[in-house]
Design goal:
mainly alpha; about 0% strand; Heme exporter protein D; transmembrane; transmembrane helix
Length: about 35
């Protein structure tokens, strides 16, 4: 069984989730500073 599709999916989920969380946090920070 080839593990690479799972490894790739894990990276996509982690990086995608991290990007989304960073973006939401950034927007919340900008809103709070106003």
């Amino acid at each position: 069984m080839n593990p690479w599709p799972f490894v790739t999916a894990a990276y996509v989920v982690t990086l995608g989730g991290g990007t989304i969380i960073a973006l939401v946090s950034y927007l919340a920070m900008r809103k709070a500073e106003k």
